[in-house]
Amino acid sequence: MIFEYKASPTFWKAFHRLPDAQRARAREVFRVFRANPFDPSLKVHKIAKLSARYGRTILAAEIEGDLRIAFFRAGSIIYSVDIGSHDIYK
Q: pTM for this one?
């Protein structure tokens, strides 16, 4: 399936606050993410607490160690809503 990608202002604000090395790593991982947001190497998993709060399935993909991207799927659109440590799960 071909997806369209959109990112929230919150995502971009958090992305630009990341240290240079993490931004560079995130860009590398985004190449995989854009090809297939459910690629097994991304270790995509549901964030139950946020999914319950927002009434939709919120997922996270692992970028590195404690760096994650939170997103949801609406049809063929992938919405990136935040990027950061496990604190984004709150």
A: 0.90
